[in-house]
Design brief:
The protein is mainly alpha-helical. The protein has a domain at about 1-60. Helix content is about 75%, strand content about 0%. The protein contains 5 helices and no strands. The chain has helices at about 5, 10-20, 25-65, 85-90, 95-100. The longest helix is centred in the middle third of the chain and has 43 residues, at about 25-65. The protein is rod-shaped. It starts with a helix and ends with a helix.
Length: about 100
């Protein structure tokens, strides 16, 4: 290349961009930005995973708490003097079907 080629605007701009990108200060800023960006992405991923696990645990606990319990008195093997705790806390069948129809 001749010296006159370096005086063209396109070549001058390209040379300036290469000089800036190759400078140690710019490389340091780009490297630091990449490291901090990756750290931020990892932290965001951890937060999303933690939130999803909490939702999953809550749904599992709600499902376990709302699951119908087996009534031991229906098999005829329970004593007439014992009271089953699940039968005391359950709503009557009429109340359950009324809520479902709304």
């Amino acid at each position: 290349m001749d010296f006159e080629d370096f005086l063209e605007p396109e070549v001058g701009v390209a040379a300036a961009v290469v000089a800036v990108v190759a400078s140690p200060q710019v490389r340091k800023v780009v490297r630091r930005g990449a490291v901090l960006g990756l750290a931020g992405a990892l932290m965001a991923g951890d937060a999303i995973t933690s939130f999803a696990r909490g939702i999953s645990r809550g749904a599992t606990q709600a499902a376990n708490g709302a699951a119908p319990r087996k009534d031991n008195a229906s098999d005829g093997s329970s004593d007439a003097n014992t009271v089953d705790a699940t039968s005391v806390t359950e709503e009557p069948a009429d109340a359950q079907t009324e809520g479902a129809q709304i």
